[in-house]
């Protein structure tokens, strides 16, 4: 029910159902038990509060979910749910304006994803993490670093979806590169990337 209301944009209703689900799962598995279902409920609560703009509250739930998942799967285990929690924490701290903290979480998430999918594998989750790293460095004003991450993300996405395929993720990478080059003062490059992005968006 929480997911359904969340998908409809009723995040307060979603919070209410997720809260009930969390309480029920704690009663079933035990208040202090580390269980994947409880960790998922905590993550869902974080998502709902994040969607409502309560990023500190979201970070608190994401942190609880991360600790539980590490307890379940192992502190140093490369597991998608741990990578997901780290990425969520990066998003929350980024929205709170602590980009250094965001980068730290994104970096950990990226490392785990590369361990899961392979260092050289073109995977959408890895491309997404690279894009997040670019955003965070851009927010810190290091646009050259941002460009480097955006370029890596673009290359992966073209490798995944096809060099000449019109895809929203590729358009997103092109837009990000346009913004970064504009901030670096290279307006010619910025216009080129923005034009490519616009052409792609129109053809999707």
TrEMBL record:
TPR repeats lie at residues 39-72, 83-116, 127-160. This is Uncharacterized protein. Keywords: TPR repeat. The keyword Metal-binding does not apply. InterPro entries: TPR-like_helical_dom_sf, TPR_rpt. Signal peptide: none annotated. Gene3D superfamilies: Tetratricopeptide repeat domain. It comes from Branchiostoma floridae. It holds the Pfam family TPR_12. It comes from the Eukaryota.
